[in-house]
Amino acid sequence: MKEKLQKIREEAIHQIESSGELGKLNDVRVAFLGKKGELTAVLKGMKDVAPEDRPLVGQLVNETREAIEKKLDETKQKLEAAQMELKLKHEVIDVTLPAKKNRVGHRHPNTIALEEVERIFTGMGYEVVEGPEVEYDYYNFEALNIPANHPAKDEQDTFYINDKIVLRTQTSPVQVRVMEKGKLPIRMIAPGRVFRADEVDATHSPSFHQIEGMVIDKNITFADLKGTLQEFAARLFGPETKVKFRPHHFPFTEPSAEMDVTCFKCGGKGCRFCKGEGWIEILGCGMVHPKVLRMSGIDPEEYSGFAFGVGLERIALLKYEIDDMRLLYENDDRFLRQF
User: Fold this and answer.
1) Is the pTM of this model over 0.85?
2) How far, in Å, CA of 279 to CA of 243, rounded?
3) Which of 26, 79, 267, 274 is within CB 3.0–4.6 Å of 263 for a Cys-Cys bond?
4) For 81-130, what is the HEC assignment?
5) Segments of the chain with pLDDT less than 50
6) Own/partner long-range contacts of 318-323 (Cβ < 8 Å, ≥24 apart)
7) Each residue's pLDDT tens digit, 9-39
8) Any known ligand binding at 254?
């Protein structure tokens, strides 16, 4: 029995040393130590060994098992180390290659322009107020001195939900809602999305954004309006910017005007950007109509105010010299990455 165990041990070690790979090494383990392995067969034959010899034979079997298992473990570690080394040689990382950069998103040109306008006006003591995009006809038209037969209420310009509810065509209804609260004085701007039934082209869209502002207080005059908008233009387009007011008509302001600014490309000399005129139209404005004040519960004999409205997209187009409004909505990453 001793000689048989010695032979099993030597054969097992020989096969382990010549296995060369982990798969063959496992086959050796099964062949000698598995349920049907040679060493297991010796243990099953213990019943044929004389009782007085069984302890010695059992000890020899355990010593043989331990020797085989030790050799198996040592060889396995060597094969795994060799396999890892070979893998590292074939999977070399070139640390000189540029790393993959995570592309972080950033603000849209409209958002950049809006935040700049908000910083200018909040710096002058204004608050930013928002309101509903789906609005009552009363707030969108009637409370702004736009009667039922006014051309602005034509269905060609306005999206009607029903005869009393519309998609707001301006953010002026927010001003009415603030006036109705009766908390005076008021200094506010109302940015937001508005809707008009326009065809899509380089300068029009059925959905766009406006920023409207309003001041209501005692002794407010057109001079306050002019000074405020002059400061706004200088901060937005540069300290050398000049403004010009042209008479106009808006139902909710009287007197009303449109304001131009000197072209910030040529300084007013005339260029391709301003079409040779030296001036660029930027917004509409005027003194709040006494009837609008009265409908909102404010006494026009005691209080007065001014209002103005500017298109957010127009600011972005001018400030960043974009020649097509549709670029702002197409989500082309090549365009948006420039800002």
Assistant:
1) no
2) 9
3) 274
4) HHHHHHHHHHCCCCCCCCCCCCCCCCCCHHHHHHHHHHHHHHCCCCEECC
5) none
6) 318/237, 318/264, 318/280, 318/282, 319/113, 319/236, 319/237, 320/109, 321/265, 321/273, 322/109, 323/202
7) 777 777 777 777 777 877 877 777 777 777 6
8) yes
